[in-house]
Amino acid sequence: DTEVTQTPKHLVMGMTNKKSLKCEQHMGHRAMYWYKQKAKKPPELMFVYSYEKLSINESVPSRFSPECPNSSLLNLHLHALQPEDSALYLCASSAWTGNTEAFFGQGTRLTVV
Amino acid sequence: DQQVKQNSPSLSVQEGRISILNCDYTNSMFDYFLWYKKYPAEGPTFLISISSIKDKNEDGRFTVFLNKSAKHLSLHIVPSQPGDSAVYFCAASGNFGNEKLTFGTGTRLTIIP
Fold first, then answer.
1. Among candidates B31, B98, B103 on the partner chain, residue whose Cβ is nearest the Cβ of A43
2. What is the tens place of the pLDDT at every residue in A30-68?
3. What is the pLDDT of residues A64-102, one digit of tens each?
4. Which B-chain residues 82-101 have CB contacts (< 8 A) with chain A?
5. Within 13 Å of residue A96, how many CA atoms lie on the same side as its CB?
6. Closest residue by Cα to residue B63 from B18, B6, B10, B110
7. In terms of CA atoms, which chain B residue is nearest residue A6?
8. CA distance A110 to B3
9. Pick from A93, B7, B66, B96: most CB atoms within 10 A?
10. A72 within 8 A of A55, measured Cβ to Cβ
């Protein structure tokens, strides 16, 4: 199993809603990531979890709240988002905390209305 | 400050010919480089990587060349196939004590049948 699975694939939410994005991998990877990608732009790192602990927060607004319940799961809790937060949210994992390739999920296309 | 640059936003190549995608970086602390391929509405797919201790890595139709003195790397695809049409991202990481991948802005490759 070399997959990173993200749910849902698409999400439309209002600015007052609370929703969560989910990510799962069963490759035994110990680093997991959230990226945000706007149209025609490269993926931008949001958060890194290493061995289930938050190791990088790229100055992401608090309306995005990551959670790593265990080594296979990564969540991104969303609350009071703005329309400009609409983007493709990508989860990725890599084997360890050194130089190694990251495997990406298919992403969640989020639209904030 | 864009530390990883792909100066060609798009590239068109005849089927069967060689595709050459270029990437430049500015941070001399980067020591691991990756190429990802991305189809619309999907997550990036890892293609090939190279460590800074090498200057070439080959995997089937894909070869990555690294010129450390010029801070330049390139991805060669030969022969190019219609299924290679996608956006290609160059990415870099370094021994910074974290797992951050810095992506280039991407090059859209179109293979002309």
1. B103
2. 999 999 999 888 999 999 998 999 988 989 999 999 999
3. 999 999 999 999 999 999 999 999 999 999 887 666 788
4. 89, 93-95, 98-101
5. 4
6. B18
7. B43
8. 27
9. A93
10. no
